Amino acid sequence: MSVLVIIEHDRGAVPEAMFEALTAARGFGMPVHAAVMGEGAADAATALGAYGAETVHHLTSAALGDYSPEAWGAAAADAVAKLSPSIVMSAGTDRGNELMAQVAARMDLPFVANCVEASADGSTMTRAQWGGALHEATTLDAPTKLLSFNPHAVEATEAPAAGAVLELAVEVDASLNRTIIKDRVVLSEGITLATAPVVVSGGRAVGSEEAFAPLEELAAELGGKVGCSRAVTNNGWRPHSDQVGQTGTRIAPTIYIASGISGATQHWVGAMGSKNILAINTDPEANMVTKAGWAVIADLHEVIPAITEEVRKRRG
Known about the structure:
Number of helices: 9
Strand content: 15-25%
Largest sheet: 9 strands, mixed
Radius of gyration: 22 Å
CATH superfamily of the largest domain: HUPs
Order of helices and strands: EHEHEHEHEEEEEEHEHEHEHEH
Distance between the termini: 58 Å
Low-confidence stretches: none
Number of domains: 2
CATH architecture of the largest domain: 3-Layer(aba) Sandwich
CATH class of the largest domain: Alpha Beta
Structural class: alpha/beta
Helix content: 25-40%
């Protein structure tokens, strides 16, 4: 009995969500194995032992290169057939779910996506629906359990294991490389909205594109990024890449400062992974205020500059 974690990576760079998945895999109480493939797989493999992977299977085939869902899915399915794990899982990211769906289709097995917790044998679980606004209790009846864990459902923690890398030859038809990556566009350098330790967001109450300047100042002082609500992007004040929410970016900062944001369900879905939330709003009944750990009931245009000034004062 073992758990096999299918590793998503981008030319060797492993996302934080995969370390969360490995952490979740340890909770099943079985030996944790990982499967990695494609361009940069050898680099990706070196990082997995630290999070509990006892064995890392490097899947090899002349048909495996940069990410291709069909080719990688076929390789993962062949690895599952050869290794016979009890549970197969990945992170509930776009790619992670795509790969697991490929495995499920090729092996004619059911797949439960975006779990937030699961029983020791993987037969019962709670999964996130509607972007996390609803949790659903689910039962899975299958000889091999296929599932993914919702990003931020568990915090990634290290638990060093052997991480022994073993090559495993898999059967992949070269014709499956019909969906390929042609180009990559870097939207931002350094800290991103998804990885920032501090996010300062503004909603419709900010008032204009220019009025985001104080939020930019505060974010810069705290080493964070500026986010916004959907209403802001709809008004053209900020680009969609700054939007926090179900249809934007899901964040998990140490602290989320939500100023002038009502906290509609779609926004809350993107912000609910935050470890701490400070809401600044004139409406004490706003959804974001009621869900926040701290709240300031006042005008954001007065509070944000005051926080920035205090931060600068304390830093001398």
